[in-house]
Structure formats: C-alpha cells, structure tokens
TrEMBL record, chains A, B:
DNA-binding region: 64-83
Protein name per Swiss-Prot or TrEMBL: TetR/AcrR family transcriptional regulator
Pfam families listed in its UniProt record: TetR_C_1 (PF02909), TetR_N (PF00440)
Basic and acidic residues: compositionally biased ranges: 16-27
Amino acid sequence: MADGEKKKRTPGPIDPDNREVPDRRGAPDGTAGRRRGRPRRLDPQAIVATARRIIDEEGVDALSMRRVAREVGSTPMALYTYVRDKDELLLLTLAGTSTALPRPQLPEDPRDRMIAVAVHMHGLIRRMPWVLKVLVRGDVTDKKALWMAEEIIECALARGLGEAQAVHAYRTLWHFVYGDLVFTAARDQRAAEPDRRPSFTALLTGQDAAELPRLTELAPRWEELQRYDVEEQLTAIVDGLLSRARPPR
Amino acid sequence: MADGEKKKRTPGPIDPDNREVPDRRGAPDGTAGRRRGRPRRLDPQAIVATARRIIDEEGVDALSMRRVAREVGSTPMALYTYVRDKDELLLLTLAGTSTALPRPQLPEDPRDRMIAVAVHMHGLIRRMPWVLKVLVRGDVTDKKALWMAEEIIECALARGLGEAQAVHAYRTLWHFVYGDLVFTAARDQRAAEPDRRPSFTALLTGQDAAELPRLTELAPRWEELQRYDVEEQLTAIVDGLLSRARPPR
DNA sequence: GCAGATTACTGTACGCGTATAGAAATACAT
DNA sequence: ATGTATTTCTATACGCGTACAGTAATCTGC
C-alpha cells in the first residue's frame, strides 16, 4: 500500500465470444466460485447486447453511455465497471457482430487471392462504416476477421516474400484500405450536406495556375477523376509489393 | 420568406491566407465598404491566431471553443459567427500553419521524385500529428501543400500514366500515407498507456492455431514484424502504380 | 427622427464522456 | 457478532460542442 500503483478495474473483462469469464479468483479450478464483493446487478452481456441493438437500429451516432445505461436500467457510471471507456464498448460490440460473416470463394493463384481478400476486406467494412472509428483503437481484435490477415500473409509468403515482407505487405494493404474508406466516407458525408465547403479546385485562381499548372488543368474534372476502382488500385499495390520477392529459382 | 430556405451564415468567411475578406456586399468596387449590421467586436484573425497559439503551446487536446472564446474575451457561441464548427476552426488553423514549409530537394527521375514527395508528405504530417483529424474533413485545403499533389501527378504523367490514372495514383499514395499515420499514431499512443489492452497475438490459443497457423507462428515476433520502413512500402506502391503505364514506344 | 433590415453577439440549455468520492452489499477472518 | 477487505453501484460535478431564442448595434429608406 506504500507508493506502488493501485490495482483497479479488477472485474473480469467481457469475453468477445459471448462466454462469460468465470472469475478466475473465486476458485482455482474451473468451477465458477462465488464472487467476493457486492453481487452484480448488471449483466455484462446485456450491456454489449444493448449497445449492439442501438447501433443496429439507429446507427452508431445514437449510441451513448447514458443511453445504454438507461436502457439496461442503471446509471452511466455503472457501466464503467465493465468497460474502460466508450471505445472499449464499441470494440466489444464490434467483436460480436462480425461473427457470422461467410468467407467468399477465393481464387487459387496467390496474387489473385491476395487481391480478392483485400477487396473483400474493403467491401466488408464499406458496408458497416461505423467500425472505422473503432478499428484504429485495437487493430483487428476480432478473431473472426483474422483469417483475412492470415490469407494475405500466406499468399505473400507463397509468392516468395520473406516473413517480414509478408507482414509489411499485409499492413500496407490494410493501411490503404483504411485510408480509402475514411476518405470515401468523408466525401460521401460532405456530399450529403447541402452547403458544402468549396472544393479546393474552386480555390485555384490566376496566380496559382502558374505554380500548379497541372492541377489547374485538371480542376474542372477533379471530382470525376478522383473516383477510382478500388480493385484496380489494390491490384497495382499488390503487384508492387510482390515485385519485392526474390525471384524463385 | 415563404417556405424557401433561410439564408444563414452571411458573414464573410475567414481567408486562410491572412487577408481579410473585405465584405463583398458593402460596395461593389474593391473598396471595403462599411458593413451593414452591428459592427464586429471580434477579430476573425485573432480567433484563428488564438487557436493556433493554444495548439502550439499545449497541444490540440487543449483546444476548445470555450477556451478560445475566453481568451479572446467573448462567449463560446460568438465564435460561431465566424466558423461553422470546431472542425472548421481547426481547418483554418491548419491552413495558416503550413505556410512556411520549405520544399525539399527532389530527384530528377520521375519515379524517384514521386517516392520522395510521398515520403516528404508522410514525414511532414508525422511531425504534426494533430492535423490528421482535420485532413479528413476538407481534403488538402491548404494551397501551400498542393504542390505535392501537383508533383506526384506530374511525375505519374511523365511516366506514361493517363490523367485519370495519375490522379488515382496520387489518391492511392495519399490514402496509404494517411492510413499508415493513423495507425502508427494509434499504436504509439497505445504503447504510452500503462495498462495496454492485450494485443491480438496474445489471444491466439490452441484452437486458433489450427485455423490460423501462420499468424500463430508469427505471433511472438508480431510487434517487431509490424515495423516497416515507410519509404520501402511507398516505393513498392509507386512501382506497382507505374507498372500500369502503357509502355512508352 | 423613425421603422425595418441586417449583422453580431449573449444567455440558457441539452446531452455528452467521464473523474471522483462515497455508499451498499457481499465473503471472510476473528 | 463484528470488523475488514473486496466488489459493485450511485451521486455529483466538470468541461465539452453546439442548438435555439433572444438582444444589441449598426445601416437604409422614409
């Protein structure tokens, strides 16, 4: 009790896989021994379930700690017994969501397979854009999504990349996918707002034309030129990454 | 006045380039005619300047509308006469900041030049991580930063890419850079927190090993394997993108 | 002078995430 | 029984971004 760090947040964490963690402290064996302190009145699973329901029904913006607390019949701060902060709640909510996602049919060729997985990854998140905010915090915490990393790395290795190179390739692809999704989402949202801020292309005037001739030239078609096919870009990236392999002899 | 949309936010916007917009409404010619309504008591420039000072001195987390209002001797809501929301204030703050950034020496070869610009871009933002939050909202609003887009696109064209391809290449590079920065920042922050959440590699147990053999194998070295050299990855991406050029004949 | 019109600002309020302090409810050692 | 340790939950409070409604100060046309 001297000046060391105090232990906090002792309660068992919520397991993403819908199995209650049986409180390792109660009994040394597997049998969930009785807890020591005040008994729980909240069900950790119910908290996550409520959060998920709110998100499903009204979108991620409708989710608030106060709202969840109200709906599970408690106070906001009580939730903090089970989650460190709102982000953690989101993370747990996400972890349970992607459980039932079918894997697509994948090509045999490692290169094509890599591309296909990356495209799949992109499309997956594109359809549930709210996870973007969460994914930054905990990398891909969901085991159900790890097969994509596994596949990409495996393919990279099959094409002769070293272990480090293969992992780097995975991260590079993921970073691009993430960046693309963030900006696409931002642009979509911007387009939805009525009084949009002028695109930078509108700012290009006389004196800029001298310094930025190419941008000035392309400005009128800028919006249109921006739109690319993600698969094409991913293909290019994959080819670039795979070109780093030492040639198979 | 019937059922049309009401006009709001009539006040002239703040010009990023530190020149006051002279209120186009007062007089048709250039002379800044007298304004019509109640005279201003706040200086738009001062608002942005104060925001910038707070960020420089105490970091972006210290910035709040209330704080800025207090420091310019006004009320929070008064600021909303000049900026639509906090994000816009951040955007304006950013726009003025990057003014005095010197361009680096660049290689002549288009490919190397592309890579160099992308690396420069990455390093630039890496040194002021708070801009990440802002950049999503408005694309690159700062004219002083547009030369990088210009250079990249120009190089891509020089290497035989079509106009659309060149713009796509720029966006692809930018999306990757952005994604990389976001995740790197997130990881740095996570590492700084004492009680870090277990990395996914710690979650891999028995049954996972069967489904995810490669990840399980790499798990012990995961943290180390993640770290890549950005320039290497950018080089690979650039090469991949440039390989889409139709061969110069 | 005086009545709008127009612009700039004030006051109040809402819901938010969460820090902090303490109260309540249990198990366990005495 | 009685304290003590442990855990869970409650109460209160802070600062946040900003919606909304009103007030104040100026210009313009009469």
